Amino acid sequence: MKNIAIYGAGGFGQEIACLINRINNETAPTWNIIGFFDDGLEAGEKNKYGTVLGNIDTLNSWATSLSVVFAIGSPKVVMNLYNKISNPNIEFPNIIAPDTLFLDKESVKMGSGNVVCSRCLISCNIKIGNFNILNGYITLGHDTCIGDFNSVMPAVKISGGVTIGNCNFLGVNSVILQYKSIGNNTTIGASGVVVRNTKDGSTYIGNPAKRIDY
């Protein structure tokens, strides 16, 4: 078994610990959870699934090989943390729920550091970059292309031929219609239905989803 730590000791981090335990129990003993890293908690604090080992400085000084999974919902926070990690001992595996349904797994290309939570359906000819979170009950249609550092919340439906760039947040139960494009740094509100291409750095809400200004 390989040592693994979870970055983020909050509720989502604890869910990821449960997911890792499921992988061990339902597929094969793969991971030994040694604890959590968190920049907002003191080393030594505990939850049901482990102890906080330290912060980003602790991780950068870690002396042995260690796998790390990010359990943080904000794409920008994950990207910033990743850019601060300079330790060559750290690697970022993909963590994929045992009940993920791949229609054609051989046609799916996936980078590193991705998390695929329970009950996701991934169709054929899919490209997924690095450090994306698919947070359960998500559908990816055929020929979908997803970049890096995206957070896709539960029950999102992404139709076929959709292109998604980097650092986007797709809210709970949102829908992206076929062959539409989401660029970069875009937020789609909960239950938003994207019927046209979006503009970078914008927030969209409603059905059909409309751009809003703050």
Descriptive report:
The chain is built from 3 helices and 25 strands. It has helices at 11-26, 56-60, 75-84; strands at residues 2-7, 31-37, 46-47, 50-54, 66-70, 90-91, 95-96, 101-102, 109-110, 115-116, 121-122, 127-128, 133-134, 139-140, 145-146, 151-152, 157-158, 163-164, 169-170, 175-176, 181-182, 187-188, 193-194, 203-205, 210-212. It has an 8-stranded mixed β-sheet, with helices on one face. Strands 3-4-2-1-5-6 form a 6-stranded mixed β-sheet. A hairpin with a 2-residue loop joins strand 3 (46-47) and strand 4. The mean pLDDT is 97.
Number of strands: 25
Pick out the low-confidence regions.
none
Structural class: alpha/beta
Q: How many whole angstroms does the radius of gyration measure?
A: 17 Å
Strand order of the largest sheet: 7-10-13-16-19-22-24-25
Order of helices and strands: EHEEEHEHEEEEEEEEEEEEEEEEEEEE
Cα(first) to Cα(last) distance is: 49 Å
Q: Count of helical segments?
A: 3
The residue-averaged pLDDT reads 97
| Biggest beta sheet summary | 8 strands, mixed
Q: Strands, helices and their partners?
A:
Layout: E1 2-7, H1 11-26, E2 31-37, E3 46-47, E4 50-54, H2 56-60, E5 66-70, H3 75-84, E6 90-91, E7 95-96, E8 101-102, E9 109-110, E10 115-116, E11 121-122, E12 127-128, E13 133-134, E14 139-140, E15 145-146, E16 151-152, E17 157-158, E18 163-164, E19 169-170, E20 175-176, E21 181-182, E22 187-188, E23 193-194, E24 203-205, E25 210-212
What's this, in brief?
The protein is built from three helices and 25 strands. With 214 residues, the chain is of the alpha/beta class.
